[in-house]
Write a structure and sequence with these properties.
mainly alpha, 2 domains, 16 helices, globular, membrane
Length: 354
Amino acid sequence: MYILLCVSHNQTVVLVARFIGGFANVGCIMCVTLYVKEIASAEMRHKLANMFSMSFALGSVYIIAVSAFVSYDTLHWILLSINLLYLLLVCFIPESPVYHIKNNDFQKARKSLEWLRKTTDETVLNSEIETLKKLFIKESGIKFLDIFRNKYYFKSMLIATFLQTFILNATAFSCIITFSSYIIQSLIVVRDVSLYNIAFTIFQLFGCLASFFVNNILGRRTFIVSTCITYAVFFFVIGLYSYIPIPYHDKVSLVLIYLFVFLFSAITFPVMYIYFNEIISSESSNHIFTIMMLGKNLGWFCTVKMFTYLLTLFPIDDIFLIFGVTTLMVAGISMFFPESKNKSLQTIKAELHC
C-alpha cells in the first residue's frame, strides 16, 4: 500500500492502495491478536492484549505529530520504512507453539516455548504444551458456516460483533476520531485546533498507559457497562447546552471530550479486546474476527456518513444528545452478556451453549 502511495498521486492508484491496505489491516489485526493469545501465558494474556490498543494510540500520536512537520510524500516514505522494519523484525520471532502442536511437531513447539518462556526445564515445557492443547487444540477445524450452526460459536460471534461495531460507533468514538478538528472547533469556537488535536492524541496515549494498571480491577462486563453510562452522561452534558445554559460550557465540553478519549483508551477499548480473547475459542477466532472487522468497518462508514448528514439537520449539541441515547442503549444490551473474568473457556462455552 505505501509503495503505491509513495510513487503515485493518481486517485485510482490511491484508491487501489487503500483497498490493499484494508485487507492488510484486517489480516494484521486477526493474526496479531491470535498470535499474542497463543504465545502468552495465562497471567500475562490480558496485559499483552493492551499493547494492541496502545499501538493504535501511538500511531495516532505519531501521524498527527509528524505530519505537522513533513510533507505528504515524506510521511508515506517514513511509513513505508516502518513497515519494512516491522517485516524484518517479525522474521526473528518464533512461530506460535500452538501452530506446531496442531501439526504434531512437539519438538519445534518446545523450541518455540524455550525462546518465549526463557527456560529449558522439561517439566515446565511439558506443562505448557498440555495447557496449550486444552486451550487451543480442537481435533477437527471448523468451517465458516459452522459459526451459524453451533450455539456457542453463534452467540460469541453476535456478542463480539455487537461490541466491536457499536462500542466504536454508537458511542461516537468513530465520529470524534474522524471529525476531531470540526468537533473541537464547534465546541470552543477556535479556528486553529492543531495543538488541541495533538493534546487529543496524547490523552489517547496516556489512556493506553493507564490501561495496564486499571483494566483488571473489575469484571469485563462491569467495565464496559459503567464506562458506556459515563460516556452517555458526558454527551448529555455537552448536548444540553442548547437547552440549559452551563457556565464555561466550551471549556467543560472540551474537558469531557478529552476525558472520553482517555477513558475509552484506558478501559473500554482494551477491555473489549481482552473480553474477545476470553470468550472466543481459537478454532473459531479467524472466522469471527473477519465478521467483527466487517461489522466494525461497515458501521464506521455508515456512522461517519450519518454524522455528516445529521449536521445538515441539527446543531452539534443535539447530535451529542443522540449519541448519549445510543451509548445508553449499548450499556443496556451489554448488561445481558456473560462475565468472562476469572472464568475458563469451558465455563463460558457452557453458559453460551444453553
